């Protein structure tokens, strides 16, 4: 890019600004979006491919991602698998909430400083609560 | 492309004439995901179990199989658009830009194709 090699002044970068909720959810939207892309879609492909491959390949998937019963290595990866799955659920709900926030901002609403900060914080409250509810529903006996 | 005025230099380059489409397609696929992914999460949460039979017989039904095919199209398209914006922000060298361009135009199609073929195998009783 032309600007990268010229002596033109560049805008103040990350460390200059005082952090606020809007900044935080903005970067969270990008981080969660890319996390969902590379980890989430990758895992989704492994999952669907394993089911299509038959019972044995599905068992391998489950062992390496959740139960850890296939081998010592799977015992290790299954810990990572649980962290990644729960993390992806949170990332999805966070990306969903900040995505809806973007749709609201697109129509020109929610730019007042108070409202903007309040809704930014609420996206994070929502994502944590929704993640907890989802996993409570899946894991708790019913 | 002209080389006199500023607007002449910009025409035909970069996102000119395409920015609105990229922006709109991102929103459109976002709304699609807003319906499809909660459907997937609720369906998974309501499954009677996570053994092979439970998951396979659920996915083999027409509506879940259709939803999964739509998910592979919609999520990979949405992800491709988002990753492109991220790469445009952070990759500035020519070689990196070419690699990024190849990446966002090839990998999502390969991934979505593999996912859709897998759903078809499940739904039509393959494997």
Structure characterization notes:
The complex is a heterodimer of chains A (142) and B (127). By secondary structure, chain A is an all-alpha fold. Chain A has a single domain (21-139), classed as 3 helical TM bundles of succinate and fumarate reductases (Up-down Bundle), CATH 1.20.1300.10. Chain A has helices at 2-5, 21-52, 55-67, 72-106, 113-139. The longest helix of chain A is centred in the middle third of the chain and has 35 residues, at 72-106. Chain B has 127 residues and is mainly α. In chain B, helix 4 (62-90) runs antiparallel to helix 5. The chains are: A mainly alpha (142), B mainly alpha (127). The interface between A and B is medium-sized, with 31 and 33 residues.
Mean pLDDT of chain A: 93
Beta-strand content bin of chain B? under 5%
The interface involving the most residues is between: A-B, 31 and 33 residues
Mean pLDDT of chain B: 91
In this structure, how is the largest beta sheet of chain B organized?
none
- Here the CATH topology of chain B equals 3 helical TM bundles of succinate and fumarate reductases
The count of strands of chain A amounts to 0
What is the count of β-strands of chain B?
0
Which strand-content bin applies to the residues of chain A?
A: under 5%
User: CATH H level of chain A: which superfamily?
Assistant: Fumarate reductase/succinate dehydrogenase, transmembrane subunit
Please mark out the parts of chain A with pLDDT under 50 across 5 or more consecutive residues, or reply none.
none
| Percent range of helical residues of chain A | over 70%
Helix amount of chain B, in percent?
over 70%
Low-confidence stretches of chain B: none
Return Rg of chain B in Å.
20 Å
Indicate the structural class of chain A.
mainly alpha
N- to C-terminal distance of chain A: 57 Å
**Structurally, how many domains make up the residues of chain B?**
1
């Amino acid at each position: 890019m032309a600007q990268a090699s010229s002596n033109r002044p560049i805008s103040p970068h990350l460390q200059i600004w005082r952090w606020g909720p809007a900044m935080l959810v903005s970067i969270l939207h990008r981080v969660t979006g890319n996390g969902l892309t590379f980890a989430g879609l990758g895992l989704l492909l492994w999952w669907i491919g394993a089911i299509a491959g038959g019972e044995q390949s599905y068992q391998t998937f489950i062992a390496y991602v959740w139960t850890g019963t296939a081998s010592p290595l799977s015992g290790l990866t299954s810990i990572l698998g649980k962290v990644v799955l729960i993390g992806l659920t949170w990332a999805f709900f966070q990306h969903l909430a900040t995505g809806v926030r973007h749709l609201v901002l697109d129509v020109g609403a929610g730019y007042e400083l108070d409202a903007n900060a309040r809704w930014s914080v609420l996206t994070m409250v929502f994502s944590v609560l929704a993640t907890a509810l989802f996993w409570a529903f899946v894991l708790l006996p019913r | 492309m002209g080389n006199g005025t500023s607007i002449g230099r910009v025409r035909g380059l970069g996102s000119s004439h395409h920015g609105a489409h990229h922006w709109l397609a991102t929103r459109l696929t976002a709304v699609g995901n807003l319906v499809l992914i909660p459907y997937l999460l609720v369906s998974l949460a309501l499954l009677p179990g996570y053994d092979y039979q439970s998951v396979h017989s659920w996915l083999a039904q027409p509506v879940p199989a259709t939803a999964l095919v739509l998910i592979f199209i919609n999520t990979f398209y949405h992800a491709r658009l988002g990753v492109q914006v991220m790469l445009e922000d952070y990759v500035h060298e020519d070689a990196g830009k070419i690699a990024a361009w190849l990446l966002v135009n090839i990998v999502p199609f390969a991934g979505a194709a593999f996912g859709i073929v897998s759903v078809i195998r499940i739904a039509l009783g393959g494997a």
